[in-house]
Fold this protein.
Amino acid sequence: MYKHLFPRAREVAYLDTAAEGLPLPAIEQSFSKYYRAKARGTPGREELHAVEAEALRLVARLLGTEPANVAFLASASDALSLLALSIDWKPGDQVIISDLEFPSNVLPWLRLKKEMGLDVVVISSDRGGLCSEQVIERITARTRLISLSSVSYKTGAYLPGIEKIGAAARKVGAVVCMDATQALGRCPVSLEGVDYLVSSSFKWLLGPHGLGIVYIAPEFRQQFQPAGIGWYSVEDLFSESRFESYQLKNGATCLPVGMPNFPSISALRPGIEFLLQAGVNRIDQELTPLVEQLRKGLCDLGVDLLTPEGAEFSSGIVSFAHPRAEEIGAALERQDIIVWAGDGRVRASVHLYNEMSDVDRYLEALKPILKQ
């Protein structure tokens, strides 16, 4: 689709966006523009805050919500930890996750299990995927939070039916958190039924490191009291009553506690603009044949495929289990084919700078490597 715009994608068969996305080249100019504003000292702040506001508007468009409902934190992991620390837990409260989750969506709940007696329910996936019914049947009156990924980092399985999970969660007053790190910018992401959503910035969004995108539903925000607070969180930091009281900003703007990461925000903006112009639905549709070929080719090679069958589970990721994963990854890299290879699996991921030739090259190179 857009291989010609990304130098690295022309040099190698780059199939590792799920780990590290290739940045839009315009990022370099954005960093330079940030530097010029920063070099002006305090007079440059007006420009930096304007860039922040525009970036938030663009992210809100991508998510299909209002800018007041989104914010930037340091990372998706920080956003998940903030949520974990901001809920008034009671011993025996239940959190539902799955065995498809990245550690960032596991560790905060394990800590609360240890310290607060939280009941952490881990749903076992079925052939690499998860369906809404599996989640709904585990919801009880004790369920306080359901925290799942839109797309699994491990198997690439898309989670269908999140709106059904949200409807079931509302019946018991539970919160639904969605980690959209492996979906946002690559697959359609719906906010229906979602109270809190997080995503990283450096994978499918064509952006830099150093940002976590956070969405908080207006209804959930009304009951949400963030554990962290700082001068950037409040309406009037120099009010006459500042030593006695404070008023949090409205919406998601209360989440950041201090000065924003202006360099990364500046660099994220062109990537979001590009994705909006290209259209995520169009990207998803045009890359579907590549994903189907990946899956078919790996099946033909007889590997232990982790990615489930079915269009409803399809994303940009296809992976298989193998005891020599690291060795396979290294052999592929020597042929200028970049994939993720670790944790007992080999994972290929396709984005808008990939073409069918990348998939064919990967599959052809795998044949002799797997026989070694």
